[in-house]
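Record copied across here:
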Amino acid sequence: MENLDAKIDVLGREKLFSLIQENSVRFKKINIRQTKNNNKNSIEHLDELVTSYERLLRSMPLELMNIEHIIRLKFLAPLEEERKIRILTSINQEMELILEQMVTKFQNLYKVKRCEEDFNVRMEKTRLRCKENIDKQMGKLVQKLQTQLAASKSISPAQLEEKYGIDQEALNQLHLVKVLQDLNSIFDALKNKGTDEVILNTVHEAIIERVKIGKMLEKMLPPAHKVAARKEWRMRVAKESVRLKEMILSIYTLAGQIQNPKEQRNYDVINKNWDRIEETFGDVPEDQAEIVMSKIKPYYHLLISQNQ
């Protein structure tokens, strides 16, 4: 969970930087326009600049919590109380920093216009609205996650790791989380409709066996002094990861076809994806390839049986 929190934090910092940059762009446009209109440092000019900052303050909690929501829902990760406190603390700290910047930038300018008291009142109201908005957005985040996670039947990334032996970092890097979640959901639905459960289960076993091939390859690390051999080994490991992904994607595409009535299946798509699966075994020892293929062939035969 710490890795997931760290990932969300990185995305949050990037989004915050983007929002601040957007405000800077607005700021410059306002200054140029008001200067052209001979309104530089007028009350109208200052009010528009403050409004731009207020827009930043409104957007910040909404955007940051939206990232939290998207990532947690993707990985089926609940929002723990400790994490919730961290989020609130961080956003409130950012809010106070922005408010301090506003005071530094504008208070003396309003003072010159003899409107300092109006500015101070506006700042206090802005602070209160910000706190209310932060609490409101957090409440929405908690409620949405609780509802959606409770309703979700998707297998979690942690469960995918346990089931297939692919660690969560690799699942994320290969963009396989959603694919395998959907594949499991499709197979569960097919089982409920009476599709041969043994055949579908052996497809999962085939993926597990293919993962084992990659792990065996990872253990074949050449000695440190064999630089060229190590370079070749890294390329082979990377290539096998790509081949694993290609095999899973083709299995997933075939799952889309098996959902269709037999007379509506696209047999060109089925055969092309079966060819792709076979091609992924080009560098795999024949005995290892046969173990995996023997577990996928019944799946392929099930798909094409109506077309023979």
